Amino acid sequence: MGNHGWLLGFLLNFLLWGSALVPIHGMPPPSPVQCNGSAGCILRNSYGEWGDRKDCRVLSIAYPETEEEMRLAVAQANQKKQKVKVVSGFSHTIPKLACPGKEYYSGNAVLISTAKLKSTIEIDTAEMVVTADSGVGLRDLINRVEAAGLSLVAAPYWEGLSVGGLISTGAHGSSWWGKGGAVHDHVVGLSLVVPAKESEGFAKIIRLEAQDPLLNAAKVSMGILGAISKVKLSLEPGFKRSITNNFTDDAHFEDEFMDHAKKHEFADITWYPSRRTAVYRYDDRVPLNTSGDGINDFLGFQSNSILTSKLLRAAEKALENSRSVRGKCATASTVLAYKRLVANGLKNNNLIFTGYPVVGHQGKMQTSGSCLYSPSTRTDITCAWDPRINGLFFYETTAIFPATKFAEFIREVKTLRELKIDNFCGVDMYNGFLIRFIKASGAYLGQAEDSVVVDFNYYRADNASTPRLNQDVWEEVEQMAFFKYGAKPHWAKNRNLAFLGVQKKYPNFNKFVAAKKQLDPQNIFSSDWSEAILFGKEAEKGDGCALEGQCICSGDRHCSPEKGYFCRTGLVYKEARVCRYSPSSIAWTFSN
Ligand SMILES: Cc1cc2nc3c(=O)[nH]c(=O)nc-3n(C[C@H](O)[C@H](O)[C@H](O)COP(=O)(O)OP(=O)(O)OC[C@H]3O[C@@H](n4cnc5c(N)ncnc54)[C@H](O)[C@@H]3O)c2cc1C
Ligand SMILES: *[C@@H]1O[C@H](CO)[C@@H](O)[C@H](O)[C@H]1NC(C)=O
Ligand SMILES: *[C@@H]1O[C@H](CO)[C@@H](O)[C@H](O)[C@H]1NC(C)=O
Ligand SMILES: *[C@@H]1O[C@H](CO)[C@@H](O)[C@H](O)[C@H]1NC(C)=O
Ligand SMILES: *[C@@H]1O[C@H](CO)[C@@H](O)[C@H](O)[C@H]1NC(C)=O
């Protein structure tokens, strides 16, 4: 096993340092929708797999190019009493929110795609607002805004999203300043297509302006209030940013995060628990005349050669199969050293990193996704998670904490870490814990108080019934976050259990439900899947359901007793129920 880790370190070194020389760009992601005549269509997310691993099948899909065509599509669904959902051309959401219809039967469900609803981006320089069709991609929007000498202040770190899709799930970057890091808090107007009476043509467009209370429901609406046709966002005069990363020890970051977020407009922290390392991002707005034309080409969103992605996945699987915690630690260590060397993908001059600070235009520093773009010449490179290539496949847990509870959560995770630090290497092979900041919001499904968002990614097996190395650790951290410290799940990420009881965590939840009743009384924009998320319903507890987070185990059969995983209590958070590997129990179980 020791050898394994060493070998993997070597392999990774070779792959990472070698591939850094390859020019970026690659094969664009596959379309999320595949249709086959009368057999209907299948919707997938960008990872190619939903939480429940079941296909989302629909009867048909419409591709409106204008707001009026979108209205007609909604009208037709309403008239035919069909279930309907909108999906973007990207489908980057992990929960099955965009799937219409009922479980096991979607025969009367249809989709409306915004993939072609993207021709208008109108900038009002005097008012400093931009109004865009909902299918417009974030990158296109930002480029247009910057060309007009303005900047969009908040955006997620990943640019491969649509304007309508990203606000719908509360997507965010990081900031406690001004209006804050969540994009929906910069929304000042929105047009929504909702079902209507026959006399009104079965569907109508409503325009919500800044003062309209319905806007607080519609800003973050998970696609269930209606079809968003246009989004109006506030802008600021163009600016640049200056970023420096400080890779330092993690001894006190839980006591320093508040100061850090208050001091730097776009601050974040990445915590690598197994490496005892915290990376502070000092990230501030600077005037346009500051010299520097850098970009933030985040490493995780750069193209990988398909071969590299496959080898990394194969290596990770080998470590899983041989239960090599050590090998994971060796990998985590190599990955972190590499990130430090290349500053996570910051580039001073568009090409390489030459030193801090890296200064560049807001439009080039806030968000990235170079793996999305393809010159026709390269078909051997993609985003690392492209489902066509057997590349990376992982879970993404994202917990949103009231700022006041965050330090205590981190202290408890540190206690768990001290029991066996190597058990934490699995997340550090990805991005550790990414810690970001968002401000209190008026959106009913947004955050009622200033909050801290934590993201962590970890291995997901190809087969749903395959347990994973240290899965008990991640289950304990997950349950601690959501059930002990009151964290809320990001609507676009997470495994199903994270949503249990979620409605009780939102003080304005009932106002959202009331808006839903007003705008879509027949529930045509709701489905079994979106209801399960919104109302945090627990699914039927089948064998192995805890392995993929479809349930919290309460008996061994929810884990995988035949593979040595039994339902046990948490090591630090005793109320947690996790699937823990305990090979000596196998003989006992099967002899009783
Ligand atoms: C690699 C990657 C990185 C990410 N990084 C971040 C990040 O940094 N910060 C963050 O907060 N999130 C991040 N996310 C999550 C992402 O922001 C959300 O998943 C987002 O909602 C996806 O937008 P989309 O355009 O792909 O929408 P989809 O996934 O297609 O749709 C999202 C939801 O919105 C609904 N919807 C879409 N368009 C409309 C419309 N016009 N009208 C009504 N409903 C609509 C859908 O029904 C669905 O419920 C990331 C995701 C990935 C895959
Ligand atoms: C399309 O559907 C038909 C009929 O159900 C089926 O026979 C055929 O294999 C399908 N084709 C593809 C490419 O899925
Ligand atoms: C890095 O962060 C640590 C912890 O906040 C701090 O003590 C140190 O001075 C910082 N280093 C630099 C170069 O800013
Ligand atoms: C930028 O412009 C401001 C005034 O507009 C000026 O005071 C400042 O010195 C300039 N800075 C640089 C680096 O040129
Ligand atoms: C997953 O593994 C189980 C046995 O462990 C097997 O029965 C099942 O067919 C596999 N599923 C897939 C999709 O490969």
Automatic annotation (TrEMBL):
Gene Ontology process terms (BP): L-ascorbic acid biosynthetic process
N-terminal signal peptide: 1-26
SUPFAM superfamilies linked: FAD-binding/transporter-associated domain-like
Listed cofactors: FAD
Domain FAD-binding PCMH-type: 54-238
Class of enzymatic activity (EC top level): oxidoreductase
InterPro entries: ALO_C, FAD-bd_PCMH, FAD-bd_PCMH-like_sf, FAD-bd_PCMH_sub1, FAD-bd_PCMH_sub2, FAD-linked_Oxidoreductases_BP, GULLO2-like_C, GULO_Plant
Enzyme Commission numbers on file: 1.1.3.8
GO cellular component annotations of the record: membrane
PROSITE patterns assigned: FAD_PCMH
Pathway listed: Cofactor biosynthesis; L-ascorbate biosynthesis
Protein's name in the database: L-gulonolactone oxidase
Annotated source species: Vitis vinifera
Gene (name only): GULLO3_1
